[in-house]
Prior knowledge:
The chain has helices spanning 12-44, 49-98, 101-107, 109-151, 153-160, 163-200, 202-207, 211-236, 239-263, 269-310, 372-377, 402-407, 423-428, 436-445, 449-454, 472-486, 502-515, 528-531, 551-557, 559-575, and strands at residues 332-339, 349-356, 361-366, 387-392, 395-396, 409-412, 421-422, 462-463, 490-494, 520-525, 536-541, 544-549. It is of the alpha/beta class.
Amino acid sequence: MLKLFRLLKPYRLQIAAVLVLIFLQSISQLFLPTLMAAIVDTGIVNENISFIIQIGGIMLAVAAIGVVVSIWSGFFTAKISAGFGRNVRERVFAQAENFSLQEFDTFGTSSLITRTTNDIMQVQQVLTLLLRTMIMAPMLFIGAMVLAVWMNPQLSLIIFAPLPIIVIAVVIIAKKGIPLFKALKEKTDRLNLVLREVLTGVRVIRSFNRADYERERFDEANQDYADTAIKVNRIIIHATPIMMLVLNFSVIAIIWFGSYSISNGNLQVGELMAFIQYATQIMFAFIMASVMFVAIPRAAVSAGRINEILETEPKVKEPENAIPLSEVRGQVEFRDVTFSYPGAEKPVLSRISFQANPGEVTAIIGGTGSGKSTLVSLIPRFYDIDEGHILLDGVDIRNITQQELRDQVGFTPQQAYLFAGTINVNIRYGRDSATEEEVREAAKAAQADEFISQLEQGLETPVAQRGANLSGGQRQRLAIARTLLRNPAIYIFDDSFSALDFKTHSRVRDALREKTADATVLLVTQRASTVMDADKIVVLDQGEIAGIGDHSELMQSSEVYREIVASQFTEEDTSS
Length: 576
């Protein structure tokens, strides 16, 4: 947690102001019992009305000062903690943006969201408590203890006696609570994961009539979370009753022994009242400290989860001596590339070697699980390869900055992802500086202008989150338009035409030939009819190249390709 608190450096002056204000607030609270004792012992006993009014006026002034400094310290504390939370979220988000897909797979989307929201909120709340409670508690404790000893050393021993009990109770509660705090965070991640899957997969759940099963799965995760939360609260709830019990017995003991001191003439009534208030302040200081000792371990677990993100080194790193690109042609070459996912028993891709040239369409085809999507994901460095080289115009892509590399790549993923906004905003995501005419041209080339023109608001039609208000084919065409607007040197279409009918697919392909005539095009597909007119076809089988050439060459040389073509055309003939 201390590592995170380094982000408080910009707020050093404000923290200093909080310290001064809380010090003044503590002084005002410590001064009031002494004034009250003077009123009782001098003013009331001697029936000195003018003295009562004079000291009462001072008490009001001291109380007013305490209220003012309390308001200002609360204002600065809120400003510091809110700013700290904002800075941490910015750091976590920036770090997550630099993650490769491998880190996203490791943490999981649900866990990253929980850490960015709930965990940071936990640390932010503890910071507020630290600035308000943890600073005031020792000030009140030390001040009240000094004044109590100065007022009556013998009676102050009653205050010291129960302190070991409080310390032992806090240690036991913290020791039992820390493992449960960590478990509770893991259960939160699990609950968010199940909830996210249920909400995003509602169509599949309803279509397969699995609502009861998903309800049971959610109830199980929810109950597991609730059980752990109950255990945590049961432990924490013991702190306050123990403190209050010790406080009340201490007050009873003070009154008991104080009454003897009054009867012996060693203590006055006002002094006893002030002493009780000082004892109460000392005990409340311990209660505040105990709350912190319970809250800090909980926040420490959250801080550890946040630091885990901040300290994770992305597997895909920027080159130390980057090679700048100039006059990019877009030639992509794989040289003996091998890649495997973390923890996998064998590589997904093994010894891949081929070249994709500008002005050509290089199609990649293969069965399910053959590594097609993985192969094209290596070009923009979503993952880094284990062995071999991937070259862009003869330069290893690991020697090019990620931003410069990705500026040259237009990637249309298998699942067309759209953002909440408008159609115009989603297409402009490819190039924000594009003109209205360029946006319309891209939409026309992707055959998206057909349905856009039928919409009442045209390009300004709202798009729901993930494009939920559009069909699969419409989403794919908008994703293709977004890529075309980017006008990169390398186009990657990862099975991006699967939701299009054959007529629309044919028209999109014809438009793409014109728009991408000078660029390098890599086309991932499972349709044999799509790759037949490609300049080069790379056939993958179980992560290895099973053939390279055009359609006629592969029909002669590749058995795997012949099987793919034969099976698909047989199915089409049967269906017709």
